[in-house]
Design brief:
The complex is a heterodimer.
Chain A: H1 2-11, H2 23-32, E1 39-44, H3 53-76, E2 80-85, H4 87-101, E3 106-110, H5 120-127, E4 151-155, H6 156-166, E5 173-180, E6 186-191, H7 196-202, E7 211-215, E8 222-225, E9 238-243, H8 249-263, H9 269-282, H10 289-302, H11 306-324
Parallel strand pairs in A: 1-2, 1-4, 2-3, 5-9
Antiparallel strand pairs in A: 5-6, 7-8, 7-9
Helix pairs in contact in A: 1-2, 3-4, 3-6, 8-9, 8-11, 9-10, 10-11
Chain B: E1 3-8, E2 11-16, H1 21-27, E3 51-54, E4 61-62, E5 73-75, H2 79-95, H3 110-118, E6 133-136, E7 140-143, H4 152-159, E8 165-168, E9 175-178, H5 191-195, E10 201-203, H6 206-216, E11 221-226, H7 230-233, H8 247-257, E12 261-264, H9 265-286, E13 292-293, H10 298-307, H11 321-337, E14 344-350, H12 354-358, E15 375-378, H13 379-388, H14 407-410, H15 417-431, E16 449-456, E17 459-467, H16 472-481, E18 488-492, H17 510-526, H18 536-542, H19 547-550, E19 567-570
Parallel strand pairs in B: 1-5, 11-12, 11-14, 13-18, 14-15, 17-18
Antiparallel strand pairs in B: 1-2, 3-4, 3-5, 6-7, 6-19, 7-10, 8-9, 16-17
Helix pairs in contact in B: 2-3, 9-11, 9-15
């Protein structure tokens, strides 16, 4: 079965959950880990605003994803797999899921909690019934995962493409969600080497008016000017377009911070306090953007997990590019 | 295990495999700040203050969780790092309600020191000013408005197998909260206090108010008793070597403050040993209620009474040294000195927060109706009090104490000390000879569990010393399954024994515990008398006709305890 790992490695597939860790390497690490029990988890928790590609895949290709899950179990030598799924998706796909996992060593766990409960170590805490908070890494889940056992955790899209690789039908594609002020919102399968600009063009979504985008997700995604798009999409497959005239940037910043204010777990000081103070500052009529920038920067550098650093990245790019510098040049 | 070479701020250092950057900084005193990472506990990485840059890495790293690799180049003082630490310190202040002028720990505060170093003062409005203040059994105070939610206390409490403190709520509302569950209660060991980086947890301070009041009252006879472990930490922070500040220096200071008499609790320990050795022999002869378990540690007693009341009969019925000495002072000694015991106020200087709780146990009242001890002040409270009174222990003369103590009394302050002291005397009682070797070295040291076998007269004794409550549940399980496995069990709730107690000066770590223990073993080695039964104070007492009657005050009983929980002392 390690043929499959070799194939995944050669394909160059990287995790599509956002962090972009080489998938083949991850599989190999869990396969090589010596333990009596190992787990595989399908992360179908998709919880970021404006990201809906995993739902698209589950709706159309659930069978393939489950097949990949079984391949994963066999390959790494695991005993049990979990489908950890967003509760809204579960409500919609319940029947299909039940018929597919029947008689298989696959448990379905409906996600409890918010955005953070989709973070891979938090998710393990949730399955184990512990406080929904991220764990310290290292040790990484490949070594110390669910119930302390080596665990392979992959996002829906990643496992879907593993199946395509298994069938020798992988063509360096990825799924990208388009939303916001554009003509044809939706999920598209595109070549991963396309630049963001090319992606917008190919889907006929390149706006006619002045715009900026947020890439990687509607909460933690980085903000880019229309002139900064000659680069491939490295984060989660989501491109949100904002009409510059129509968008009240300060309100947008407030909305984002509110999201993180409600979703943060409070474990690490920077995120707990930083997000609270960002919210406080931005709520003022004339916010102190210098201070807000300082906080966003600290968050991007210092936060414990992706939630905090995501908040930092999004707000830092928004404040420095779109608020502090007034009208950006394209 | 090869040696690694790393560079910190351009300077080369040797490190061992497995060390974190913070470990290296601690080893070489490089001063990377850290609030939430204590060497006793697992790394949390919650406070984020120990951030550093690593050459070749895009993102800064945390020293507490980054293991060193050969050739690693670390930068701790770049503009970026200073900036991040400043932002972070402002965040910490937003969690820790600033009230430094009123704070007893203002000269003993890591956060204040760090802020001065980085030129940071509170920037944000405090959002914790309205949080509550709790008292646990009159021993420990938790001031939630100072808490930075780093969770060291929660970990320390879990490590004690207590789990009284827990994390509640999420996000900005997160808080440390005492458990409401009926089956969890505080044992007052104070390990939360020892591990709190910002003094949100501290020993109850009301005892000092009483002391001040009594010192001003001309009618009161104020007597201090100093626990053996107290002396081990007195020099810390004063820039002198361990053992340099003696209890005799402290006696001078106390008499300056207005204390009339100063005793060493080690004298009380000699009494405890004298009685406890007899009880051990009794139980061995009857082969009943073995293993006998020590009861000097009030936190351990509470642990048994609350969590394992079925083990109560195994606890020795002999009172702890502070209570015995208090009893001796307010009965036999008072009569001898012709002092009205009701005018006496016995103040215990203790390394311990649980001792504050112990003196309130109603069954410990004397047959004259008085409490043996009136107040307990911890070592840390004492050092702060002395500083406020501008008393410098390094400048004190030596004043002899008002009663003698033996080496066997001194070692009570270290883990294994009670056991060793009792074994020395038990050996004498059983054989009428001194043991060939005075020292019972197998019960010494900082291991979690210390098991030893000793042949004394006809008895092959299996003994176990439990150092900290980390592994206590396993020990209890073993005892319940196989009661005959051990004959004698010493348990101290705090690691290192009393010298690592929740009332001792901060910081604390294994190295400090070792140094403190060395002070006591050195004192024992040099002591002219090393067996409790040789103490002339005891001989005088036991030869008096009143001894038989007064000995009642040396024994006690235990009861299953219901949950006490907490009291809110500030809303």
């Amino acid at each position: 079965m390690s043929d499959l790992i070799e194939k995944i490695k050669q394909s160059g597939l990287k995790g599509r959950g956002g962090a972009g860790f080489p998938t083949g390497l991850k599989w190999e690490m869990v396969q090589k880990a010596a333990a009596l029990k190992k787990y595989v988890i399908l992360n179908a928790s998709e919880g970021e605003p404006e990201v809906f590609k995993d739902f698209y895949i589950l709706s159309h290709y659930f069978k393939e994803v489950v097949a990949a899950l079984e391949l994963a179990l066999k390959t790494i030598g695991g005993q049990e797999a979990y489908i950890y799924i967003n509760h809204k998706y579960y409500q919609k796909l319940k029947r299909k899921i039940k018929s597919l996992v029947k008689d298989k060593p696959i448990k379905v766990f409906v996600k409890k909690g918010g955005y953070l409960a989709g973070e891979e170590t938090t998710l393990m805490q949730v399955i184990e019934g512990q406080r929904p908070e991220p764990r310290l890494r290292p040790p990484y889940p490949t070594e110390y995962g669910l119930y302390g056992c080596p665990t392979l955790i992959n996002n829906v899209e990643t496992l879907y493409y593993v199946y395509k690789i298994y069938q020798d039908d992988y063509h360096q594609n990825r799924f990208v969600c388009f939303s916001g002020d554009l003509r044809f919102p939706g999920v598209y399968e595109l070549n991963e080497n396309l630049t963001i600009k090319q992606m917008l063009e190919e889907t006929k979504n390149w706006p006619a008016k002045d715009f900026f985008v947020q890439v990687g997700g509607g909460a933690s995604g980085e903000f880019l000017f229309s002139g900064e798009l000659d680069t491939p999409l490295k984060s989660t497959g989501a491109i949100i377009v904002y009409d510059k005239k129509k968008t009240n940037v300060l309100n947008l910043a407030r909305k984002l911070v509110n999201f993180f204010y409600h979703e943060n777990c409070g474990r690490c000081l920077v995120c707990r306090e930083g997000v609270f103070r960002l919210k406080e500052i931005l709520a003022q009529k004339k916010p102190d953007f210098e201070k807000a920038e300082e906080i966003a920067f600290a968050l991007s550098q210092l936060a414990f997990c992706g939630l905090g650093s995501g908040c930092g990245v999004a707000l830092y790019s928004l404040i420095t590019k779109l608020i502090k510098n007034g009208t950006p040049k394209n | 295990m090869g040696l690694l070479k790393i560079k910190i701020d351009g300077q080369e250092f040797e490190a061992e495999e497995g060390m974190t950057i913070l470990d290296v900084s601690r080893k070489y005193h490089l001063g990377i700040p850290s609030l939430c990472s204590h060497p006793d506990l697992t790394v949390q990485a919650n406070c984020r203050i120990c951030v550093v840059e690593i050459k070749g890495q895009k993102m800064p790293a945390l020293s507490c969780m980054t293991k060193v690799k050969d050739g690693l180049e670390i930068i701790t003082n770049s503009e970026l790092i200073k900036k991040l630490r400043r932002t972070n310190l402002e965040f910490i202040w937003a969690n820790h309600h600033e009230n430094c002028e009123q704070c007893p720990f203002k000269d003993d505060c890591q956060l204040k020191k760090l802020s001065e170093e980085y030129g940071v003062s509170p920037y944000y409005s405090s959002r914790k000013a309205s949080r509550k203040k709790y008292s646990f059994g009159g021993a420990i105070v938790f001031d939630a408005e100072k808490c930075i939610d780093c969770r060291q206390c929660v970990l320390a409490c879990q490590k004690q197998n207590v789990g009284f403190l827990e994390v509640k709520n999420r996000g900005a509302d997160i808080t440390i909260f005492p458990q409401l569950a009926k089956n969890k209660d505080c044992i007052y060991c104070g390990q939360c206090v020892s591990h709190c980086p910002v003094n949100a947890l501290s020993a109850d301070n009301r005892s000092l108010e009483n002391l001040e009041k009594w010192l001003k009252d001309k009618n009161k006879i104020i007597i201090a008793q100093i626990a053996p472990a107290v002396r081990t930490g007195l020099g810390e922070g004063l820039g002198v070597d361990y053992g340099k500040i003696k209890v005799e220096h402290l006696a001078t200071a106390l008499k300056k403050l207005g204390f009339h008499y100063v005793f060493d609790t080690s004298t009380g320990a000699d009494f405890t040993t004298y009685e406890e050795a007899q009880e051990l022999i009794e139980r061995l002869k009857n082969n009943k209620w073995l293993p006998m378990m020590t009861s000097c540690c009030p936190a351990w007693v509470k642990y048994v009474e609350f969590y394992h009341p079925d083990l109560i009969p195994y606890l020795t019925t002999v009172r702890s040294p502070q209570m015995i000495l208090g009893a001796y002072l307010k009965t036999y000694w008072a009569k001898k000195q012709q002092i009205d015991p009701s005018k006496m106020r016995v103040i215990s200087l203790m390394p311990c927060t649980a001792k504050k709780y112990e003196i309130k146990r109603p069954e410990l009242k004397l047959n004259n109706g008085l409490a043996p001890v009136d107040e307990v002040i911890t070592t840390r409270q004492l050092t702060i009090y002395l500083r406020e009174k501008k008393i410098d222990l390094t400048k004190m003369e030596e004043t002899p104490l008002d009663a003698l103590a033996t080496g066997a009394g001194f070692i009570y302050g270290a883990t294994g000390g009670v056991m060793e002291s009792a074994l020395r005397t038990a050996y004498y009682f059983l054989t009428h000879e001194e043991p060939p070797q005075v020292e019972f070295k197998k019960v010494r040291g900082l291991k979690d569990l210390k098991e030893a076998q000793y042949q004394i007269a006809n008895y092959q004794l299996n003994v176990l010393v439990v150092n900290g409550l980390n592994l206590i549940e396993e020990v209890i399980k073993t005892i319940k399954e196989n009661p005959s496995k051990y004959h004698y069990l010493e348990v101290m709730a705090c690691r290192g024994g009393c010298l690592g107690g929740g009332g001792q000066p901060l910081p604390i770590d294994s190295l400090i515990r070792e140094k403190r223990a060395a002070v006591l073993y050195h004192l024992d080695e040099k002591a002219p008398l090393r067996f409790s039964y040789q103490n002339p104070v005891l001989l005088d007492f036991y030869h008096s006709p009143e001894a038989e009657n007064l000995k009642r005050n040396f024994y006690t009983f235990y009861q299953k305890k219901k949950k006490v929980g907490f009291k809110i002392i500030k809303k």
